[in-house]
From TrEMBL:
Residues 1-21 form the signal peptide. SMART domains: CLECT. SUPFAM superfamilies: C-type lectin-like (SSF56436). This is C-type lectin domain-containing protein. Keywords: Signal. The keyword Cell membrane does not apply. The keyword Disulfide bond does not apply. InterPro entries: C-type_lectin-like, C-type_lectin-like/link_sf, Ca-Dep_Lectins_ImmuneDev, CTDL_fold. It comes from Elysia chlorotica (Eastern emerald elysia). The lineage of its organism: Eukaryota, Metazoa, Spiralia, Lophotrochozoa, Mollusca.
Length: 194
């Protein structure tokens, strides 16, 4: 009995260790210590943090992601977009829009990813993004994903009026994306501690 019990303990311990190290292998160490690992997910070699319980403006959310060397999530294809949508809804019960790393701040109607790469696939909802025909399109320059259907909506990036005007409160939850620095690689994303 004793050897069997010990074997079981070792097996369970190995499984738990393996599960933890999967996230640890892909997420920045600084992030692992900062937020509840329940909100971290791995997909295709990238680490994603789902910040569904804290609402921030687009710029505030971008800064938070950058603190650990990341960016807002960039779902550049349907597979990743489906993963982000399903995880936000199924795992975290999120029904509110979440910021992603896409905007048309530079030129109205020309959306770009926050890493500067070309936008070759989009999932804008009807009448949103480049298809937005209303005047508000000039101030709705940042994109968010709807966890209910995976479609994107352009929205106010930052508050332009006091937050007390709740209908114009631009704060949302958000999803960050990280690629863990490889050992020996020079980090260019280290933020100042001052
Ligand atoms: Ca716009």
């Amino acid at each position: 009995m004793v050897p069997k019990f010990l074997f079981l303990c070792l097996l369970v311990g190995t499984v738990i260790t393996t599960a933890k190290s999967a996230i640890g292998d892909v997420c920045p160490t600084s992030l692992l210590d900062k937020i509840d690992n329940f909100y971290l997910q791995e997909y295709n070699g990238y680490c994603f943090s789902f910040i569904v319980n804290f609402k921030r403006t687009f710029d505030e959310a971008s800064k938070q992601c950058a603190q650990d060397g990341g960016t807002l999530a960039m779902p550049k294809n349907k597979d990743l977009n489906d993963f982000l949508q399903n995880t936000a809804f199924d795992s975290y019960g999120s029904i509110d829009e979440l910021w992603i790393g896409l905007h048309d701040k530079q030129k109205e109607g020309e959306f770009q990813w926050v890493d500067g790469s070309d936008v070759t696939w989009t999932r804008f909802a009807k009448g949103n993004g480049p298809l937005n025909i209303w005047l508000v399109k000039n101030v709705e320059d940042c994109a968010a994903i709807d966890p209910l259907d995976g479609y994107w909506h352009d929205s106010l990036c930052n508050n332009i009026l006091p937050v007390s005007v709740s209908v114009l409160n631009s704060k949302k939850g958000y999803i960050c994306q990280y690629l863990k620095p490889q050992p020996g690689a020079m980090s260019t994303n280290t933020t100042s501690t001052t």
